[in-house]
Design brief:
alpha/beta; 11 strands; Peroxisomal Thiolase, Chain A, domain 1; two-stranded antiparallel sheet
Length: 382
């Protein structure tokens, strides 16, 4: 049931444009050049010139960090923005930057913001994902995947979630990605294929893990009033957003089967004046298959013990009551994380998605970073 609508920022700002590079292996491309290409495409989609942009907000590249990256990008764009910075929250940073843009616009600090992210770990170095994890490295704890495998094992044991349920997430995202001409991996997956796939770190299988991708993506954020003044053809209102974070490393957490996603979603739903039943399509961060499953539970779409039925009944597929990751997500479209999920939510609400959900009014997006350290939620709608 919807909540009373009262938040003063609800619908005040819009996503005016979206743009992206190709996804996959793009050798010879710097992260700056990928960001610039994506920003140009987003400005073209919004139908505006770059000289109206007065804010550039960028997620720092995960695989090759640089100081003053925001200023370096603004220079490459040929801009001298009033507001310019880079942020690191891992994969949650993209939605956080969109929310920062909204708040800055409302505070009169800027009028038109470019929010973007690019990385090139596929053609460059992916060492950051395989790095040792502190003192526990002497016991063999290396890589991002190891932390998620521990979380997946605990989630399976505590809530009785079978391995087939994780497989259904991978199958759904891969099916959606197979229909997406922009997707890096356009290969459907069967349950038999999934169960026959090699174990990476038990119980995690190869197809539980997202892609490693080069690519860039950007969005243009401005007030609804400014979008009307500039003649933006298809603005999508921002209804709500929220964040939730933990400082604890995996081994120090009291509970591995829930995340700060519940706090992020509660804030976003309250701001939007909506609840889980008001969402027609969701783009859920799927770095590993356990992530969207835990997000579904933390967001209140179902209880953890109900996940096997919820997913197994086809409710997250096209034609279900909550289709997720309709362009393929990180498991199929691109592992270049976060903003591609926002793009697909925008396309769904514009009615231009390749796999279009019939007339959705509201779309939800989740972003997550680290080993379930950071989380951000975005709700778009009409």
């Amino acid at each position: 049931m919807s909540h009373p609508v009262s938040h003063p920022l609800r619908g005040r700002c819009v996503i005016a444009g979206i743009g992206a590079t190709a996804f996959g292996k793009l050798p010879g491309r710097s992260t700056v050049s990928l960001n610039v290409e994506a920003c140009r495409a987003a400005l073209a989609d919004a139908g505006i010139a770059k000289d109206v942009v007065d804010a550039v907000l960028v997620k720092t590249p995960t695989s090759a960090r640089e100081i003053l990256y925001g200023q370096k990008l603004a220079e490459a764009l040929g801009l001298q923005p009033r507001l310019n910075h880079a942020l690191d929250q891992g994969g949650a940073a993209n939605i956080t930057l969109i929310s920062q843009a909204v708040m800055a616009i409302e505070a009169g600090q800027c009028e038109v913001a470019l929010v973007c992210y690019a990385d090139n770990p596929r053609s460059g170095s992916r060492a950051v994902y395989a790095r040792p994890r502190g003192e526990d490295a002497v016991l063999g704890w290396f890589s991002t995947a190891a932390g998620y495998a521990m979380i997946q094992r605990r989630f399976m044991l505590e809530h009785g979630v079978p391995e087939e349920t994780f497989g259904q997430v991978a199958i759904t995202c891969r099916a959606h990605g197979a229909a997406n001409p922009r997707a890096q991996l356009r290969k459907p997956l069967t349950l038999e294929d999934y169960l026959a796939g090699p174990l990476m770190i038990e119980p995690m299988r190869r197809d539980d893990a997202c892609l490693v991708s080069d690519g860039g993506a950007a969005v243009v954020v401005m007030s609804a009033r400014r979008a009307k003044e500039l003649g933006v053809p298809a603005p999508v209102p921002i209804l709500g957003f929220g964040q939730g974070h933990t400082a604890w490393e995996v081994a120090q957490r009291a509970d591995l089967t829930t995340t700060e996603a519940a706090k992020a979603a509660a804030a976003a739903f309250a701001m939007a004046g909506l609840g889980p039943r008001d969402i027609q399509v969701a783009q859920l961060y799927d770095c590993f298959t356990v992530t969207p499953l835990m997000t579904l539970a933390d967001y209140g779409f179902c209880k953890p013990a109900q996940l096997a039925g919820f997913v197994g009944e086809g409710r997250i597929g096209l034609g279900g009551d909550l289709p997720i990751n309709t362009a393929g997500g990180l498991l199929s479209e691109t592992g270049m994380p976060g903003l591609q999920l926002v793009h697909e939510a925008v396309r769904q609400l514009r009615g231009t998605a390749t796999l279009q959900v019939p007339a959705p009014r509201n779309a939800l997006v989740s972003n997550q970073g680290g080993t379930m350290h950071t989380h951000a939620t975005l709700i778009l709608g009409h």
